[in-house]
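User: Fold this; tokens only.

Assistant: Input:
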Amino acid sequence: MPSLNKVTLIGHLGRDPEVRHLENGASVAKFSIATTEAYKDKSDQWQEQTEWHDIIMWRLLAERAEKQLKKGSLVYIEGKLTHRKWVDKEGNNRKNTEIVAQTFKSFDRRESNNSGYFPSPTDEVATSNNVTAAPAPKKQAAPQQTAAPQEDAVVEEPADDLPF
């Protein structure tokens, strides 16, 4: 049976991406993002719970992150969940859970070069102005043998204004 390892997050960067350039020429970026969930507790008071997620980006994605992201940026990330184990300098066993990003989109207003994977608001406006949906065809009832008028002979369906 096939399996799937996919994570989708939207959160704010806790620090600027730390980017290293390896000897083989590959770039790797590391940073963390915070996601916050609001809920009501037993006493009907609003509470917030913030989770921090370690993010890893490789190669061109890391280079884009270095240019486009900064502490506080709101970012959409898709990737996969990974777990690492190692022994630190003091001999302690350590483990970490990280998201290896496969795509990202910055939601900062300062980004004007639509280099992400999603349409910008201006793209959506242009599409809706240039494409007009044809009205939905009217369904007619099968002809009746009698000459009596049928009140429900014409049935209109709601126009579907989705672009696909």
